[in-house]
Fold:
Amino acid sequence: MTGINLAGKVAIITGASQGLGAATARALASAGASVVVNYFPDPEGSNQARAVALAAGLGQDSVAHGADVRDAAAVDAMFRMAGDRFGGVDIVVNNAAVLRDRTIRNMTDDDWNAVIDTNLTGVFHVCRAAASCLRDGGRIVSLASIAATVGFFGQANYAAAKAGVGAMTRVLSRELARRNITVNAVAPGVVLTEMGKSIPEKIRQGMLAQIPLGRFGEPDDIANAILFLCSPLASYISGQTLHVNGGWTS
Structure:
């Protein structure tokens, strides 16, 4: 997106080793920001490998950092690292998320907790740390979802978590306004990331029929919306959820 200059800004993006997080890291870095590419420290190290490669491609002012957003202490340590390395943090993008789709009759406590702990409690951990660490005039953007309004079959846990993200966004926009920190959410429709591609083909085709623009989203479609909300162009936008879904409405 031309005309946006984030030189001198420092961004933390959670779950940034692939998909929407990686696209957002590239978008913010291309506008001049230094980026902390957060990744979940999986035992196989695949997330770390992707994050390190991505950070290297973004330039010497970006770094990969492993932290599980479910772990408040690990999140706090990530913010301390960013402050020590870069002198402060200006932008936070809450992207880390998981899926555990089941009908509510078949959904286990583990299925429920896995999604709520990452997709909602993880956002709380990051936002709480950001509230203390962000420089004045900063930006928080969290990923919500069309699932919170449409209510897709088998996604009681995911829809509840993403609806909670929207509510938390509205509250934090009021709490942080005195420091000129804006807090917004972006609610994608179906995007062709690995998560999106995991939807069965028959169901995807039914979804596609409901999108007026006639296509699924690409990661860059969402990353560009996030870039806008992180920029000076969006300085008077706060407490909002921006739906980016090709015209699909509930």
About this structure: The chain has one domain: 10-239. The mean pLDDT is 95. The chain is about 45% helix and 15% strand.
